[in-house]
Write a structure and sequence with these properties.
This protein is α/β, with parallel strands linked by helices. It has 13 helices and eleven strands. The chain folds into two domains: 21-70 and 133-160 and 226-404, Aminopeptidase (3-Layer(aba) Sandwich), CATH 3.40.630; 76-123 and 164-222. It has helices at residues 2-21, 25-35, 44-60, 74-96, 101-118, 165-194, 200-222, 232-252, 268-271, 273-287, 320-333, 350-355, 384-404; strands at 65-72, 131-141, 148-155, 160-161, 225-226, 258-265, 291-296, 305-311, 316-317, 337-342, 359-365. A hairpin with a 4-residue loop joins strand 8 (305-311) and strand 9 (316-317).
Length: 410
């Protein structure tokens, strides 16, 4: 009888312990709450966030690996400066069109090429001026067979700006493509002017159009970086999801063919320097076997999940393999899921990874871009259902990849 009672008590303790480590949106929510405070690089919040992430890894039973790197605010200084130069230069050339249309046409060609180049930018533009030392925080679970790697990423830093992420995206898209359209029109009508066609109404119409586009583009000049956003959805909820997944896979130990990396990156908000540093350091290691990256950014909003599966201009696509897996598993779990194209104006840690030729995807929640970088990005806007859907879907995708690589021959 005593043995049975002890066995029953041990079973109850085992079940209780297991429940603590199962995928749990309540746990993810509590970690999100713990991280939901301003944590811009160089602030006191940065140090506090690093401590919390390491502490949560240790609670799981994973000793966090710290990889330090150098970063700076150079990217956003350059971006704001570029919009200022492009705007003032285009206004000057539009005035010049009244007197020297041929010169404006030549300048317009330059503007078109500059904008096409800017539309392809992703990653670190430069690290100079005042620099900071920060870090990536990594947990790793090695598998028995190690037939492939899956790297889960989410950035722990935050930033505030005068305008929300959605406003920034919209204004950058209008600015970039507006300048291309206006410059193309100046080029066309400049050539027509040389052929003898002239209409003053067209000149004034182009000038008004230029002023409208540049007025919108100057919003980006005013969009200074601050440390005012709690960053709950961008990106504390994603880090919490990452840690919850690490806890689940560490406890269940049910992945036999995949090495799992859980990477909390720093300095995503400044220049994607954390992801750039991480992939440069581990590139040769990841090239030895198939490696897949799943980046969480803006998780925890509505229950509907997004995969940004294409971005930039011309359009670049992310991993078709991962997209099909997420789409298939979302149908099985009855989780709302859709693909999204992001032309320009937002960047994430996935981009330096894709630039190095690896397979990867970006998972987000619908309706979160308008909160990013604002004071409204607080814990009160985090949805437990959104957290649960992101965690549950990712678990099933990773299990599916594990089954795919079960009989993999190196």
């Amino acid at each position: 009888m005593i043995r049975n009672l002890e066995g029953s008590q041990n079973l109850e303790l085992s079940i209780e312990k297991q429940e603590n480590y199962l995928p749990n949106e309540n746990l993810a929510f509590e970690i999100t709450k713990r991280l939901a405070f301003p944590r811009l690089i160089g602030s006191d919040g940065e140090k506090k966030a690093i401590f919390i992430v390491k502490d949560e890894f240790r609670k799981i039973g994973l000793e966090p690996i710290s990889e330090k790197f150098q970063t700076s605010f150079a990217n956003w200084v350059i971006i704001r400066l570029l919009f200022l130069i492009l705007g003032t230069g285009l206004i000057a050339s539009s005035i010049m069109f009244f007197y020297y249309p041929f010169i404006t046409s030549l300048i317009s060609i330059l503007y078109i090429f500059i904008c096409l180049y800017l539309s392809k930018l992703s990653g670190v533009i430069g690290t100079f001026g005042k620099t900071y030392i920060t870090e990536n925080i990594i947990g790793k679970l090695n598998s028995k067979l190690a037939n492939a790697n899956v790297v889960l990423m989410a950035h722990w830093d935050s930033k505030g700006q005068k305008f929300s992420g959605s406003v920034r995206i919209i204004t950058m898209i209008i600015s970039l493509f507006g300048v291309i359209v206006i410059s193309t029109l100046y080029l066309i009508f400049g050539v027509l002017y040389l052929l003898g066609f002239y209409n003053s109404l067209i000149n004034y119409g182009l000038f008004i159009g230029t002023i409208c586009v540049i007025s919108i583009s100057f919003i980006n000049v005013l969009n200074k970086i601050t440390n005012c956003s709690p960053g709950a959805i961008d990106n504390a909820a994603s880090v919490a999801s990452l840690l919850t997944l690490a806890r689940y896979f560490h406890y269940t130990n049910n992945i036999k063919n995949l090495n799992l990396y859980f990477v909390a990156t720093g300095s995503e908000e400044l220049n994607l320097a954390g992801a750039s540093s991480f992939i440069k350091k581990h590139k040769l290691e990841f090239e030895e076997i198939p490696t897949y990256f799943i980046n969480f950014d803006l998780i925890g909003g509505s229950e509907k999940l997004l995969m940004i599966n294409s971005y930039g201009f011309p359009k670049k696509t992310t991993s078709l393999f991962l997209y099909n897996l997420f789409k298939m598993e979302s149908k099985k779990l009855n989780i709302p899921f859709k693909a999204m194209y992001l032309p320009f104006g937002a960047w994430c840690d996935l981009m330096p990874i894709l630039n190095e030729g690896f397979d990867g995807c970006w998972i987000a929640s619908e309706g979160t871009f308008s909160l990013a970088h604002t004071t409204n990005d607080s814990i009160y806007n985090v949805s437990k259902k959104g957290l649960k859907n992101g965690i549950d879907l990712t678990i099933e995708v990773i299990k599916k990849i594990d089954r795919i690589y079960q009989n993999f021959i190196k």
